[in-house]
Amino acid sequence: MPLLNQSTKWLICVSLGVASCFAAPRVFAQEKSVVKMDDAAANLRADRTETYYQYSIWGAFVNRVFEGFLPVEELKQQGDIGLGSFTKLDGEMVMLDGVPYKIDETGKVFVPPNDEKLVYANAAYFDEDQSFQLPAVSNFEMLRGIIGDRLPSRNYFYAFKVTGNFKSMKCGGLSRQEPPFKEGLDVLIPARPVFDRENFKGTMVGFFCPSFIGDINVAGFHFHFISDDKQFGGHVLEFDATDVTVAFDQMDEYKFALPNSEAYEQVSFEKSFQYKQK
């Protein structure tokens, strides 16, 4: 299956080592992977281990481009960890070990069908560069500060897996919206559903983007969560944990695919629909 179908208009790839722009036919030739991990797919995976993939851009997402067209099956070809949101804001997504999970507005967790669509997504093949242990992390701000101090440089992209025993975890969800989409994230996020759970194990999946990313993605840290029993998850809001292990993968290539839709073609990148991203 090709990487791009009619739902994707452009794919842009940037390397922080050497500036590069790949013509579409060359990208297509590289993206002829299939779900089975045969030798060709294994080689393709090796080529992508330092690449951060994104579908749509943050500036469009916060400006009410809420209808997406990226199938779950295509996302799985871009990495084995990831996070994002489903079309029409019909739930949050977290991908761990190659399996995407959907958290609906009631907090229920399940594996979505391959043809379900995403409106915004990030993914990478996680190839651990470094890890460290923390006996206790009492809140999210503390974790962001510790990780920030340990990053080799804030001028690269990073993927994270953070595991631990969570004394408490608070996650945010999303409630499905229907067109016309009149309310932006500035209204929807403060009213989002919130889920809480105590005393269990799980994994935070996240990414860090440098400040130069602008409105293409969220600058700084962005984490989603899935419990070990796959019964709880969402966008990480706050937590308290012990026996924490932080593993990260530094990436020097970044590529994103732009939606092929009338809403995206006509969107105006206003700031009025922004909200304070944690």
UniProtKB/TrEMBL annotation:
- Which biological process terms from the Gene Ontology are attached to this UniProt entry? acetoin biosynthetic process
Q: Please, which domain of life does this record's source organism belong to?
A: Bacteria
The parts of the chain that form a coiled coil are none
- Look up the signal peptide feature and give its range: 1-29
Lyase keyword on record: yes
Give GO MF terms, alphabetically.
acetolactate decarboxylase activity
Q: Pfam families given for it?
A: AAL_decarboxy
Q: Which family does it belong to?
A: Belongs to the alpha-acetolactate decarboxylase family.
Could you tell me what this protein is called?
Alpha-acetolactate decarboxylase
Gene name, Swiss-Prot/TrEMBL: aldB
